[in-house]
Amino acid sequence: MKRTIIEVFLALALIGAGAFGWLNWQQNQKSSSQLKVLQTAADEAAKSLQTSGESVKAAEEKATALQQQLTPMETQLQELAAVKAGLSSGATLADLQAAYKAKKKLSEEQQVGLAAVLLLTKGSNDPATLEAFRKTLKTSDLGNRKNTICAAQMALIAGGEKVDLLAECKPSPAAAEGKESKAGPEEKGGAHGKAEAHGKGESHDKAGKAEKSDKKAGHDSKHEWGYDGLMGPERWGKEFPTCAKGKSQSPLDIQGPFVKARTNISADYKEGPLKIINNGHTIQVNVAPGSKLRIDSVPHELLQFHFHRPSEEKINGVPMAMVIHFVHKNAAGKLAVLGVLLKEGNENAGIKTLWDNLPAAEGAETSPEGVKFNPASLLPREFEFYSYEGSLTTPPCTEGVSFFILRTPVNVSSVQVTKFPFKNNARPVQPRNGREIVMN
């Protein structure tokens, strides 16, 4: 009997233990499932937090960048407000209008300057202001007056008129982001001939006797320059001191007395693939290695040649229709420019080839397929010359450049002169400052 009771008790204990264990296992399974759900939720929350943190950081960086752009804009607005306040009385406008009243015709720069003062004094909705900018557009061609046209177009747009803004007037993406514009062609010059010597302030500072100030300035894309208006030659010296302070600047008005030449020169130019560029200041042809100018038997490699209209050099006070400058450099880095004057006459076959392949607009160098060109086709038969020591005729106006201006001009037709896309890209003649001019 006792044994039976004990066995029943043990059986009940076993059943209770099993039930307890099963219930405990069930609870553990449930807890485990809940733990997995909680872990997944925690992981998702962590990811969400990380993403939010990255978004916040990106937003902070963007805000910082916008603030950096905003600061100079605020300064410019303050400067503009100061200028407008100074002109608000109208006295300056009245004086300017009185001064211009006696002139039969205003230049493009004078017209856009008057329009700008009207804009600052009376605002963009004033009819006289808009009419002044319309006159500017009527009298200007793109050529090298891009800034004048852009100013007029943007002012008319501000006044509510529908104007198709030229592509050249639209800000580049870099400028829109508050960054400096990317370097122009003159800063991409290669080891041979692609640097824009003389034609666009080419970085030949490394050669000859370039001064440190000019080396530092080079032709930095931050510093624009041109041939008229606020960027004209009379203002180059603000950014490029040698242009204003140099004592051996080019070009010159070539007049006697002359010194008899003891130097001989000869050109040995070779045919090569045509590489032509409109760099915004001139039409330039970059030349492959192999063409040389020999000065007393010392070879000077031809890097490139380019055009000026009218001629930068004058002979006894008189300019020619155009001039070609052939830019060379010897092994020591000394620059030499051979100048070929162009007078109006018959069509020039060599220039016809170049003009037939002119780039459509300012931009990168182009190489028309299958077109070859020999620079010798642009030279006169006679090689008598005037010679003097001068400088680059464009910023940075580096001195230590030998000039040889051939005395015999070459023909160019009036149509070819007109087709040249720059109406005036000639620096005015500079003081002689006692320099000898040699003649052979």
Briefly say what this structure is:
By secondary structure, the protein is of the alpha+beta class. It has helices spanning 2-87, 91-101, 108-122, 127-139, 146-158, 173-176, 212-217, 236-239, 241-245, 349-356, 414-419, and strands spanning 253-254, 259-260, 265-268, 272-273, 276-278, 283-286, 292-295, 298-308, 314-315, 318-319, 322-330, 335-344, 372-373, 385-391, 399-406, 410-412, 438-439.
Would you give an account of this structure?
With 440 residues, this protein is an alpha+beta fold. It has three domains: 1-87; 91-166; 186-439, Carbonic Anhydrase II. 39% of the residues lie in helices and 18% in strands. The protein is built from eleven helices and 17 strands. It has helices at 2-87, 91-101, 108-122, 127-139, 146-158, 173-176, 212-217, 236-239, 241-245, 349-356, 414-419, and strands at 253-254, 259-260, 265-268, 272-273, 276-278, 283-286, 292-295, 298-308, 314-315, 318-319, 322-330, 335-344, 372-373, 385-391, 399-406, 410-412, 438-439. Strands 2, 3, 5, 6, 7, 8, 11, 12, 14, 15, 16 and 17 form a twelve-stranded mixed beta sheet that branches. A three-stranded mixed beta sheet has the order 1-9-10, with no helix packed on it. A hairpin with a 4-residue loop joins strand 5 and strand 6 (283-286). The termini are far apart.
Question: Pairing-aware structural class of the strands and helices?
Answer: alpha+beta
The number of distinct β-strands equals 17
The CATH superfamily of the largest domain bears the name Alpha carbonic anhydrase
The CATH topology annotation of the largest domain reads as Carbonic Anhydrase II
Beta-strand fraction estimate: 15-25%
Categorize the overall geometry. extended
Distance between the termini: 150 Å
* Helicity, as a percent range: 25-40%
Q: Per CATH, which architecture of the largest domain?
A: Roll
